[in-house]
């Protein structure tokens, strides 16, 4: 008698919420609806800038998310033409809530269907769940990148070439120590770069190796200690990171913070030819024409800057210097 009452009651208390949650997780939002997630800090807070970069005109953007800032950033980005969009992690901010991957896909589709979108992962893309202890199930399924083409065995790190540029996408949230598969792959990938064919080498990763903001202080340090030497030896031109919601640019080698501001925006890295590229930072709160920060780059494949004769990379013979 009691069992007849208690059993359905227990079923209602414990199983129904699970079913509802499951339904919620796998339900599809109506097409075209965009979920606007709330930002947890005010616009003026220094940790709030979403960063986009764009170059050659390749385009870069970190920590995209799904806020009205995302829409504003994408509108700014699409205001000018570009070849490739590069995103160093934190795509949907789904954090386990699967419909957010759908709404993120719909939000970026108008841009992502027009140009290649190349991404690497951020901490919000990990999604470790009880049945998926290694995480990245949605990220790897929804954003498969062409990693096998560059000899990588993981969707979390790979490289590709576009317009005279070798672009390396690294994984901040998979192993990176000297014995790791990622480190060994990076070493062999850098050794294969032909600077005559691709004079530029760019690297994207999520957690910055240099950062003067209080947020995420030191989070990229162990990866820096493991891999930075490889970058210097290979004369990598530029490293782009995401994670911290502020824009900051460092002088290479010093490393001296040269420019920092708490703003959303995107950047454009425009490669003019084999020796010169122009970087510009576009804040969302300005018209796109206003450039808040800019700098010329000279490719380290030909420039003698930062040259250490002990560190001649294998791909450049001394005669070419
Ligand atoms: C590359 O572009 C820069 C900047 O416009 C220019 O000064 C330089 O002469 C160009 N080099 C070549 C080889 O065209």
From TrEMBL:
EC number(s) recorded for this UniProt protein: 3.1.3.2
GO molecular function, one term: acid phosphatase activity
One Pfam family recorded for the sequence: Metallophos
Protein's UniProt keywords contain Signal: yes
Annotated ranges, domain Calcineurin-like phosphoesterase: 68-247
Top-level taxon: Eukaryota
Cross-referenced Gene3D superfamilies: 3.60.21.10
Keywords: Glycoprotein, Signal
Record's catalysed reaction(s): a phosphate monoester + H2O = an alcohol + phosphate
Signal peptide: 1-22
Name used for this protein in its record: acid phosphatase
Taxonomic source organism: Quercus suber (Cork oak)
Name of the gene encoding the protein in the UniProt record: PAP22_1
């Amino acid at each position: 008698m009691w069992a007849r009452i208690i059993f359905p009651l227990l079923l209602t208390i414990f199983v129904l919420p699970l079913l509802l949650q499951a339904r919620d997780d796998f339900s599809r939002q109506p097409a075209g609806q965009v979920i606007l997630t709330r930002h947890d800090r005010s616009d003026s807070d220094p940790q709030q800038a979403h960063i986009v970069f764009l170059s050659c005109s390749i385009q870069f953007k970190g920590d995209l998310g799904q806020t009205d800032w995302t829409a504003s950033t994408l509108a700014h980005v699409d205001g000018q033409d570009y070849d490739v969009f590069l995103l160093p992690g934190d795509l949907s901010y789904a954090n386990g809530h699967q419909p957010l991957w759908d709404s993120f896909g719909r939000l970026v589709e108008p841009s992502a269907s027009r140009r290649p979108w190349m991404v690497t992962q951020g901490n919000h893309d990990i999604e470790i769940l009880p049945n998926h202890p290694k995480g990245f199930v949605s990220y790897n399924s929804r954003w498969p990148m062409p990693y096998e083409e560059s000899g990588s065995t993981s969707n979390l790190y790979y490289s590709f070439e576009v317009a005279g540029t070798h672009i390396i996408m690294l994984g901040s949230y998979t192993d990176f120590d000297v014995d790791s598969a990622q480190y060994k792959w990076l070493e062999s990938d850098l050794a294969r770069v032909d600077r005559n064919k691709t004079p530029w080498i760019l690297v994207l990763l999520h957690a910055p190796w240099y950062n003067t903001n209080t947020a995420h202080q030191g989070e990229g340090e162990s990866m820096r200690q493991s891999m930075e030497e490889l970058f210097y030896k290979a004369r990598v031109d530029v490293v782009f990171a995401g994670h911290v919601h502020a824009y900051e640019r460092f002088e290479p080698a010093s490393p001296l913070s040269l420019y920092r501001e708490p703003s959303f925006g995107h950047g454009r890295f425009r490669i003019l030819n084999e020796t010169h590229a122009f970087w510009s930072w576009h804040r969302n709160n300005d018209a796109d024409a206003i450039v808040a920060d800019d700098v010329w780059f000279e490719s380290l494949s030909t420039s003698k800057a930062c040259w250490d004769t002990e560190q001649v990379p294998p791909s450049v013979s001394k005669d070419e210097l």
